[in-house]
Amino acid sequence: MKEIMNGSQLLQTLEALSNPYRLKIIAILHAERQYVSQLSRELGISRPLLYLHLQKLEEAGLINGYHEVSDTGKSMKYYELEPFDLQLTGEVIEKHRDSLPAKRKE
């Protein structure tokens, strides 16, 4: 289970969740793992754009990507959701206040 350890991780997680496509990806992966082409078709976006969203989610530790070889010998990149439970309260934010970066990465 993903645990927020500091303010930087809290911001990274919130930024990863702040996009509707990324929330849709999480919803899809909650139901079952998917490979990139399936996700791209289901979301109706290009694979390059999808990879940008997947990278943000993976960097935040919310999803995990791995390669598998199909029966036909084709390498396929699958993604699955990592278990997480994000409790966002004033107490959580206060706990990480001192480790929040002074300014946001651009």
Automatic annotation (TrEMBL):
The keyword Nucleotide-binding does not apply. InterPro entries: ArsR-like_HTH, HTH_ArsR_DNA-bd_dom, HTH_MetalResp_TranReg, WH-like_DNA-bd_sf, WH_DNA-bd_sf. It comes from Planococcus lenghuensis. One of its GO terms (molecular function) is DNA binding. The keyword Transcription applies. Residues 12-95 form the HTH arsR-type domain. It comes from the Bacteria. Keywords: DNA-binding, Transcription, Transcription regulation. SUPFAM superfamilies: Winged helix' DNA-binding domain (SSF46785). This is Transcriptional regulator.
